[in-house]
């Protein structure tokens, strides 16, 4: 006598041709993700902004603490609250949180090393375009090291690079999860019925606009660049659509939000590495950080390659009939 088969639970990351966008839940999630984050941003602005925020604990300012907690975890909070408020339940959430490490090891490897490779190529491109910005003397590091420091500037840069490639992504994953459990863990699956191109692009666009209040306060780009803060806001959208496509790629391949959190953590770990070999400048609009329009070019090229044929987003073992 045959045994009853185990019911198969479909993944929220698997496109279903007959599915439709759950507009109400998308709206509730979006209002909560933006409302919570922008309210926290308002508190930061009213207490001195990111530059003049009062000190709080362990050398951290109030603005920094609020940004790393209330602002960055707003999408995760919105995910949970939306499920509670709309009666959706948490079955899909458990699927989103399932690591699937054994079935998708390549996705985790991509998430770990891909951001470093793409960003370092972008940094190299930036210094090729602006060679005068490259500083082989490492004066930025030298200026903050005491005269009797036991480590040379070169060794400090080497340690920073090794950390950014090893422990940095793992540590930053904890903080990046606050965003990825919302953007790639909830909004992306909800928009997939629109088609992968539109879904991935919309999530990247929303993610970028969500950053606008802190961009206006000098986050990522400072305040002294041409056209501030509007050009920084637009540059941030370019960056989030480009890097967000990569994060959607590892998410859909693994059918889990964890590779996106790891990849996002890796982006944060390596994103500023170009600063340590760059001469000081007021404008970061073009680089050498990952949010710069020149540094993000390799990310944009990869995003274009993926979106040109959307079935690539799921990998060889994934769904092939996306349109």
Order of helices and strands: HEEHHHHHHHHHHHHH
The number of strands is 2
Average pLDDT works out at 89
Strand content: under 5%
Distance between the termini: 42 Å
Over the alpha carbons, how many angstroms does the gyration radius reach?
A: 21 Å
Secondary structure class reads mainly alpha
Task: Give the tally of structural domains.
Answer: 1
Please sum up the structure shown.
By secondary structure, this protein is mainly alpha-helical.
Could you give the topology of this structure?
Blueprint: H1 23-46, E1 55-57, E2 60-61, H2 62-71, H3 74-86, H4 91-97, H5 105-129, H6 139-142, H7 153-165, H8 167-180, H9 183-191, H10 196-210, H11 212-216, H12 230-254, H13 258-270, H14 297-308
Antiparallel strand pairs: 1-2
Helix pairs in contact: 1-2, 1-3, 3-8, 5-12, 5-13, 8-13, 9-10, 10-12, 12-13, 12-14
Characterization of the model:
There is one protein chain. By secondary structure, the protein is mainly alpha-helical. The chain has one domain (23-314). Helices cover 59% and strands 2% of the residues. It has 14 helices and two strands. Strands 1-2 form a two-stranded antiparallel ribbon. Helix 5 (105-129) runs parallel beside helix 13 (258-270). The protein is globular and about 65 Å long. Mean pLDDT is 89; it is low at 1-9 and 317-323.
For this entry, give a set of tags.
14 helices; 323 residues; 2% strand; disordered C terminus; single chain; globular; disordered N terminus
């Amino acid at each position: 006598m045959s045994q009853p088969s185990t019911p198969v639970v479909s993944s929220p990351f698997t496109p279903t041709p007959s599915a439709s966008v759950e507009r109400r839940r998308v709206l509730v999630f979006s209002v909560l993700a933006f409302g919570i984050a922008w309210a926290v941003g308002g508190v930061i602005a009213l207490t001195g902004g990111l530059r003049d925020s009062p000190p709080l604990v362990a050398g951290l300012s109030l603005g920094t603490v609020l940004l790393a907690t209330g602002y960055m975890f707003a999408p995760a909070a919105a995910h949970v609250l939306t499920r509670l408020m709309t009666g959706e339940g948490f079955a899909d959430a458990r699927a989103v949180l399932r690591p699937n490490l054994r079935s998708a090891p390549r996705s985790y490897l991509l998430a770990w090393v891909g951001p470093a490779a793409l960003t370092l190529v972008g940094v190299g491109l930036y210094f090729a375009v602006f060679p005068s910005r490259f500083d082989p003397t490492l004066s930025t590091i030298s200026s903050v090291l005491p005269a009797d420091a036991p480590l040379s500037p070169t060794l400090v840069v080497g340690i920073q690079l090794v950390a950014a490639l090893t422990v940095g992504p793992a540590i930053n994953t904890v903080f990046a999860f606050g965003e990825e459990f919302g953007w790639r863990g909830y909004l992306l699956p909800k928009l997939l019925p629109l088609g992968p191109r539109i879904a991935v692009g919309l999530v990247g666009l929303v993610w970028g606009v969500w950053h606008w209040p802190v961009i206006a306060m000098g986050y990522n780009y400072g305040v002294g660049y041409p056209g501030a803060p509007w050009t920084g806001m637009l540059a941030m959208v370019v960056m989030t659509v480009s890097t967000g496509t990569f994060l959607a790629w590892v998410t859909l391949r693994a059918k889990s939000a964890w590779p996106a959190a790891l990849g996002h953590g890796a982006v944060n770990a390596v994103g500023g590495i170009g600063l340590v070999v760059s001469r000081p400048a007021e404008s970061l609009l073009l680089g050498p950080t990952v949010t710069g329009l020149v540094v993000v070019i390799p990310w944009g090229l990869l995003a274009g390659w993926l979106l040109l044929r959307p079935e690539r987003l799921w990998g060889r073992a994934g769904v092939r009939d996306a349109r």
